[in-house]
Amino acid sequence: MQPRIVEVRQGILKKNDLLARDLRQRFAAAGLHVVNLVSSPGAGKTTLLEKTLARLASRYRVAALVGDLATDCDAKRLATTGVPVRQITTGTVCHLEAEMVGAALADWDLDALDLLFVENVGNLVCPASYDLGENLRVVVLSVTEGEDKPLKYPTIFSAADLAIITKIDLAAAVEFDRQQALQNIQEVRPGLEVLELSARTGVGLDAWLERLVRPVGRPPA
Amino acid sequence: MHELSIAVSLVEAACEKVVELGGDLRVDALHVRLGQLSGVVKEALEFSFELAAAGTAIDGARLLIEEVPVTVRCPSCDEPRRLPSVQHFRCPVCGTPTPEVVGGRELELTALEVTESCSPVSSKSAKGS
After folding, report:
1. Residue B27's closest CA among B126, B121, B111?
2. CATH number of A14-214
3. Domain B3-113, CATH
4. Burial label, A20 (beta-carbon count in 10 A; 0-12, 13-18, 19+)
5. Minimal Cβ distance to A155: which of B1, B12, B37
6. CB–CB of B117 and A192 under 8 A?
7. Chain A residues closer than 8 Å to B32 by CB
8. How far A58 CA sits from the closest chain B CA (Å)?
9. pTM for the full predicted model
10. Which of A57, A50, A59, A51 is closest to A78 using CA atoms?
11. Which of A113, A122, A137, A161 is the 20 to 30 Å CA partner of A186?
């Protein structure tokens, strides 16, 4: 028999994309706004989330899913804020997938939540490929990582809706070149909204909280 | 590195297609389009593919990857433009910054090269007759 070519034209991550689409529909139906936080390991996602949950918990119904290769340290830390938190332990998988998010949420009443945070596995490469059904993808960059990170990882920046520069209280100590960092972000993702803050000192947190709750329609406390 | 996860998804997609086609065929090659902004490294995917395909219905198939450069739409020229560098999202002709990616995120199984397999013996005898 002659060999022949069969056209397929299918996204390799079609399964993930379909699951993400279903999740997005469920979130919309429940009036739930979902934020996916991505960064390299150690950029300060968990500390930022800890402060964010603590500040929002009195006025909003918030919850968090935390992805890590191993341990539930982050979930335990975040649980001290009193909001529902669930750890997703991925084993050897370096990113979260829509299926993991769906499974982690299976017995949660989404109607009872306003905002859900998904802290992705610390990794600036792989999470870029996986849609989790989120409404807002936030890339977090700390001043200690250096201002050239956006140029090294353009894919994750080009797929983000918002960038946050964290640990700005340490900027002087590490001689962080703020202008260069902002310029590098704009080079790889022109027009990307950028917020600068320190979760530790609280500088800049108000603007971040305001940005987060804007879709919920009630101002932060 | 998530290329092994991607390779597993790719193999699953191809095997599903084989079932859809009736199953009685051999897959010689997979054609894949890989965008420069897909977040996937070609060499790592090639390496992972062999592992992922081993023991499946497409074991032994070749993986043919077409890399797709990043194309943006320039708002000033109102034209699609190929980016010479993913570090600079600006029109290579007029310099206007643009975030509008129109190509380069592809991660797609475009086609399978297959050979229908009536049994190898019968096809040989058919040729001989």
Report:
1. B111
2. 3.40.50.300
3. 3.30.2320.80
4. buried
5. B37
6. no
7. 12
8. 37
9. 0.91
10. A50
11. A122
| CB spacing of B17 vs A6 below 8 angstroms | yes
Strands B71-74 and B25-35, sheet pairing? unpaired
Q: Note the pLDDT tens digit of each residue in A102-153.
A: 999 999 999 999 999 999 999 999 999 999 999 999 999 999 999 999 999 9
Given an 8 Å threshold on Cβ–Cβ distance, is A95 in contact with B87?
no
pLDDT digits (tens, 9 = 90+) for B101-120: 999 999 999 999 999 876 54
Task: Enumerate the H helices of chain A as residue ranges.
Answer: 14-30, 45-56, 73-79, 98-105, 149-152, 154-158, 178-188, 205-213
Shortest CA gap A51–chain B (Å):
31
Residue given tokens 């708002």 in the structure block: B75
Does residue B97 belong to the interface with chain A, where contact is any CB pair within 8 Å? yes
Nearest CA-CA distance, residue A126 and chain B, Å: 6
Mean pLDDT value of segment A20-32: 97
pLDDT at A91 over 60: yes
- Reported ipTM: the value is 0.84
φ and ψ at residue A15, rounded to 5 degrees: -60, -45
* For testing contact with chain B, the best of A1, A6, A12 (most B CBs within 10 A): A12
